[in-house]
Hints:
By secondary structure, the chain is an all-alpha fold. 79% of the residues lie in helices and 0% in strands. The chain has helices at residues 6-26, 28-40, 44-72, 74-92, 104-122, 125-133, 140-148, 150-169, 171-192, 213-221, 224-254, 259-281. Helix 1 packs parallel to helix 4 (74-92) and helix 11 packs antiparallel against helix 12.
Amino acid sequence: xxxxxxxxxxxxxxxxxxxxxxxxxxxxxxxxxxxxxxxxxxxxxxxxxxxxxxxxxxxxxxxxxxxxxxxxxxxxxxxxxxxxxxxxxxxxxxxxxxxxxxxxxxxxxxxxxxxxxxxxxxxxxxxxxxxxxxxxxxxxxxxxxxxxxxxxxxxxxxxxxxxxxxxxxxxxxxxxxxxxxxxxxxxxxxxxxxxxxxxxxxxxxxxxxxxxxxxxxxxxxxxxxxxxxxxxxxxxxxxxxxxxxxxxxxxxxxxxxxxxxxxxxxxxxxxxxxxxxxxxxxxxx
Length: 285
């Protein structure tokens, strides 16, 4: 199977790890909430509002990401988004109450939430799926399931590790190390992902396809399927991604559990997410 399409499976592996790092970076906020509450005297409302802001920015970036994928290909989009989010994680570690340039509130809102969310939006599941499917005629469902299961895989691998590292070395060294790993993954992705724009692929191009972003967006918002899917994802974003995954770790910590224990609970939840994604796609021919 791998021998029949080595390039395709290499891309699956790169997408899996870039998606893993992206979603793990986004999910680092719940692990950091109890720490930042104490160190900066921030309220939980303020911190979790940052989580909501991340999701809003990601949603706004997603249509632009699809257009950029058509124009420039996965290499620049995925590697750029991964490097951007990694740099934002590193900058978050430099928050300093005594510095006006690195003011904690400004860095948290502007860098950790808004700018990093732009990076997360560029490494989104639609981008991952489109990048993988163009490489496969056979085993397309299996390849897509493995690549996109990085959503849960990153949380399974990294969230308990981040929680342990914060307790062992502190949150600043942990974010610097984790952000550096993300940047390294982004650089690696630049050399391994295809650079061809999707719009030049003869398998996907149609003669009357619109080229401008606004023309594509106009078609999108007139589609009933878009609103049905958007409504379903809004509910998922509000409940699972917005309430459970953001609040579970800090709530468990407030109930007396250690952050590591709560992180393992999140990891366990993400593991079922990973299995569910695989089961969803592998039925595809």
